Amino acid sequence: MDQSSLYTYSTYRCSKVITQLYSTSFSWGIRSFDARYRFPIYAIYAFVRYADEIVDTFQGCDKRSVIAAFRSETTQAIATGLSMNPVLQAFQDTVNRYRIDQRFIDAFFSSMECDLEQKRFDRQAYEAYIYGSAEVIGLMCLRVFCPDDGDFDRLSVPARRLGAAFQKVNFLRDFRSDFLDRDRVYFPGMSFETFGDAEKKAVEKEIAADFAAGLEGICKLPAGFRRGVYVAYVYYLALFKKLKRAPAVKVKAGRIRVPDTQKLVLLCKAVVNDRFKRYA
Which sequence ranges are marked TM in the entry (predicted)? Predict the structure, then answer.
């Protein structure tokens, strides 16, 4: 391995550490991929995670300037094939190696920038936000898995629906913190104060449809990465079921989680189900 390759390899290792620190669920899912797919998916996760940190976590700074600088650095890294930011170096290598569409990256940044100012969403803004913040992440990962344009096009809709399901589950799980910490409510036409069981059921119906469409796509994926995607699906489905069992008042009272011990059990079940092609 030459020095240039060593540098890029080290940045992928950084992305792996970031993923492991931020998400147990996605880390376990990625470990279920064939080895050749793991580093690119770590790179995508670390990139979107850090961008999200800028708009949601850092206080007391000019977030608009910071996210604008990060976007500019991303564009430059992709164009030149080099960045001294480890996250951007791994991400640009993935983008260039797997021909990830610049439009996906632009849509992602548009949603991140939206988080800086928009607090309430109508249906059109909600769908645009979900596309940029979640669906394009599924499409980026799908491009890594499917270099062939025909396979990519055939599976792109299920990939988008699965990304949408994950994001909407996040919205439901984080309903309280989004409102109290950021004065933000994503669900269109709904408010924190009046959110009740009827509104929650409407959201759940939408999420269930997205999960069903996503699962149809998972069943068609090649074995090398199907299991990892299915593991992530199983984790989020378990969280969704737990949220469904909770009344709206409980969702508004605090964050509902799936314990790591249960995640480990779900991982084992997902591996067995994938082995015997029993998907549900």
Answer: none
179/204 Cα distance (integer angstroms) = 19
Neighbours of 169 (CB within 10 A): 21
Backbone angles phi, psi at 197, to 5 degrees: -65, -35
What are the tokens at 232? 């992530």
Smallest Cα–Cα separation from 38: which of 16, 20, 18? 16
Both tokens of 87, joined, read 């996250």
pLDDT at 141: 96
What pLDDT, on a 0 to 100 scale, did the predictor assign at position 58? 82
Mean pLDDT per 10-residue segment, the chain (280 residues): 88 97 87 93 97 88 94 98 97 97 98 94 96 97 93 96 97 95 93 95 97 94 89 94 96 92 87 78
* Beta-carbon contacts of residue 230 (< 8 Å; ≥ 6 apart): 32, 218, 270, 273, 274, 279
The three-class DSSP label of residue 254 is coil
* Structural domains of the chain sorted by starting position, each given as residue range(s) with its CATH number in brackets: 3-275 (1.10.600.10)
Residues found in the chain: 280
- Chain-centroid distance, C-alpha 239: 15
The dihedral built from the CA positions of residue 94, 95, 99 and 101, taken in this order, carries a sign that is positive
Q: Which amino acid is at 127?
A: E
